[in-house]
Design brief:
Layout: H1 4-8, H2 19-42, H3 53-60, H4 67-86, E1 96-98, E2 104-106, H5 107-126
Helix pairs in contact: 2-4, 2-5
Length: about 130
């Protein structure tokens, strides 16, 4: 199976994602999860907008981005995500939200999915 990076570059051969593109993707992951968390805390049973990571990479032209800008945004988005999750109160952990495909999450399960995603990406970068 081809990775997202290979799909958006139309590359059939397996190879690691370029660091810049991976950084831009993780920057966007932080932003998407922060937005979803804030929506779940603010609204009752919201449905998240669909996020196509392959299309985001194409639209964002990840390979042409300035590495220094991506680095700053990655750190800031990570800090924003940490602050958003740190602000969740005990009563909010059970609030619900839905992905566009109908998958249901609570704030707690969204946090678990988010952490899994970040650890997965960290593993990929270190592989």
């Amino acid at each position: 199976m081809r990775s997202s990076a290979q799909l958006w570059r139309n590359d059939p051969t397996p190879k690691p994602w370029p660091v810049l593109e991976y950084g831009a993707h993780v920057r966007d992951v932080f932003e998407v999860f922060t937005e979803r968390l804030e929506l779940m805390v603010r609204e009752d049973n919201p449905t998240f907008a669909n996020w196509d990571q392959d299309q985001a990479a194409l639209d964002g032209n990840y390979s042409a981005l300035d590495p220094e800008v991506v680095s700053r945004e990655l750190v800031q988005n990570g800090l924003d995500a940490a602050a958003a999750f740190a602000a969740v109160t005990e009563e909010q952990w059970g609030r619900r939200g839905l992905r566009s495909n109908g998958s249901a999450f609570t704030v707690l399960t969204l946090a678990g999915y988010f952490l899994h995603d970040v650890v997965h990406h960290l593993h990929d970068v270190n592989a």
